[in-house]
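just leaving the lab so this will be short. below you get a single protein, a line of residues and a line of whole numbers that encode the local backbone shape. id like you to explain what the token line says about the fold, in plain words if possible. thanks a lot i owe you, the record is right below:

…
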Amino acid sequence: MSGYLTTHVLDTARGCPANGLRIELYRWTGETRVKLGEMDTNDDGRTNAPILDVASFETGQYELVFHAGDYLRESGQAAAEPMFLDIVPIRFGMNDATAHYHVPLLLSPYGYSTYRGS
């Protein structure tokens, strides 16, 4: 089995999945960043398909860019501008060509966390 990449975004302030949050995926090669795709989260806070599927998977350096500010504004959680969190980039490496990489985002208006999930 080949590797693939998924995510899950949870709104920890409201205690629910973050629906409609835009995510961009980039691949880094040295100092060059190339956009590979863009998608929105569904009602469960996930994307409808893997962010990087088996056919497109390669090991290397990647970056997920979560458009948290747009989501927080739409959900009524923007207290004032500029917001404390707007764009949340997470750069990470994938070095196992057969692994499932899961990069969740736990989000609130004033903080976030991530980890390598399963």
